[in-house]
Amino acid sequence: MSRAVIALGANLGDRGSTLRAAAAAVAAVPGVRPVASSHEVESVAVTLDGPDTAKPRYRNAVVVVDTDLGPQELLDALHAIEDAHGRTREVRWGDRTLDLDVVALQDDDGTDVLVDTATLTVPHPRARERAFVLAPWHDADPAAVLPGAGPVADLLAAVGDDTERVDEPRLFDEPTRASRPTDATADAAAPTDATAHATPPGAAS
Fold it and tell me: For 101-157, what is each residue's pLDDT tens digit?
């Protein structure tokens, strides 16, 4: 079983409700178990030409899940959820009803999973530059590390956090810590409930 970090974003429609519905859909995918999630944040739209304040603002969040799916299977499931929410792909980095990205993957032994195919690159090649990914990821998992780049907290400090926290609950009920415990901490860690449920969709935009 792998641990996956998934970034969610939307800047069209009822963005908050879309993120919550998408998180619930991710949690409902066979072979996926929710682990942790962030609160939502707002951010300026980023286009191929850079940040664009004239575009609708994004809602962003991050969820952490355990999954039996392979990387491409997981990506296919995320694309199906995007399609169910009306996602189109005519313009690269254009406005979107929903965007779901696999940011990082880790095997159950703690080994980072590296993927470089025509359809998927993991770790996400631009995650280290994006506060709208780093800020909610740090919120979901303060001990997170982006493979090949370093602690998410340090990366966020380096780029600067220009996101705005949204006063809404986390996307999942919080069942457990997101970072896998080290050998030194595993014995001391208290037992946790391994079952989580996605928070039902609610208005948030």
Answer: 999 999 999 999 999 999 999 999 999 999 999 999 999 999 999 999 999 999 999
User: Tokens 């990082």 sit at which residue?
Assistant: 104
Task: Note the pLDDT of residue 173.
Answer: 75
Residue in this structure with the two tokens 């998408």, named with its chain if needed: 22
- Cβ(195)–Cβ(173) below 8 Å: no
- How far apart (Å, rounded) are the C-alpha atoms in residues 7 and 22? 11
Q: Specify the pairing of strand 145-146 against strand 164-165.
A: unpaired
Considering only CA atoms, which of 32, 39, 5, 25 is closest in space to residue 174? 39
The separation between CA 21 and the C-alpha centre of its own chain, rounded to angstroms, equals 14
Nearest to residue 7, comparing CAs of 16, 22, 21? 22
CA 135 to chain centre: 10
**CA distance linking residue 122 with residue 119, whole number of Å:** 10
**146 CB-side CA count, 13 A:** 24
Determine contact, residues 139/38, Cβ cutoff 8 Å.
yes
